[in-house]
Design goal:
Length: 225
């Protein structure tokens, strides 16, 4: 999962979570014995479905999950951790500096405030998120950050298919392709995790900033430019 030469980085990150992460209330004390299985490995399995050299945004990174384990497992990626809360963003910056993770940046803000940011144009190859919001809300917050040929890879639990049903209208309104659910870590984790992969159905119509399809438009094709 982690390249052997980067295992010390994963161990150092686990120590930060178990010490400062717990003291500052970013990780519950009861999580300490299961940090590797439920947090580091549960996040790092995402590496199996992220393309080579991708730019990745981790929306609502919290204490760095899944973005930091992903960046440790995959030094070829450029990972931006997006987190609105000051004390969490401060922790993230401290960890990134302490570990010397030169492929990670921390960006303080809410995802929806960044939809028009010229600095982020034309969007990310992969936008990921774990334990932040239900799928419909996640699509609203994350799809506008996804590059025309990129994907949203939301990490979800086993109820992911129920969530899909509830998010149909939102998926249509953004002009998303049919979502695909990929099981990850079945041979490694106590409990598998699932990535829901969502792309744009018509990448040629995606611009920056992205826009929804007008609800009552006669022309149902999505216009995002
Ligand atoms: C339950 S925590 C999950 C943290 C981490 N992803 C994990 O799996 O442990 C949810 C995080 O999402 C952040 N958040 C909430 N709304 C957000 C938004 N609109 N944009 C970006 N982050 C948001 C919160 O500040 C919080 O750190």
């Amino acid at each position: 999962m982690f390249p052997v030469e980067r295992l010390p980085l994963a161990e150092a990150y686990a120590e930060h979570l178990a010490s400062a992460g717990v003291v500052r209330g970013l990780i519950g004390p009861r999580e300490t014995p299961r940090l590797w299985d439920r947090h580091l490995l549960n996040s790092a399995v995402l590496a199996q479905v992220v393309p080579d050299g991708a730019s990745v945004a981790d929306v609502g990174s919290g204490a760095g999950l899944p973005g930091i384990p992903l960046a440790i497992a995959r030094p070829d990626l450029r990972v931006v951790l997006i987190e609105p809360l000051l004390r969490r963003a401060t922790f993230l910056t401290e960890v990134v500096d302490a570990l010397g993770l030169d492929n990670v940046e921390v960006l303080r803000g809410r995802a929806e405030e960044l939809h028009r940011s010229a600095d982020l144009a034309p969007g990310f190859d992969v936008v990921t998120s774990r334990a932040v919001a239900g799928l419909g809300q996640l699509v609203d917050w994350c799809m506008p950050l996804v590059h025309a040929h990129g994907v949203l890879l939301g990490l979800k639990g086993s109820s992911v298919r129920d969530e899909l049903d509830g998010a149909r209208r939102t998926l249509t309104s953004w002009g998303c392709s049919e979502p695909e659910v990929v099981e990850l870590g079945a041979d490694l984790l106590t409990e598998s995790t699932f990535a829901v992969r969502i792309a744009w159905s018509d990448p040629t119509s995606v611009g920056w900033p992205a826009r929804r399809v007008p609800a009552r438009s006669k022309d149902r094709r999505r216009r995002r430019t």
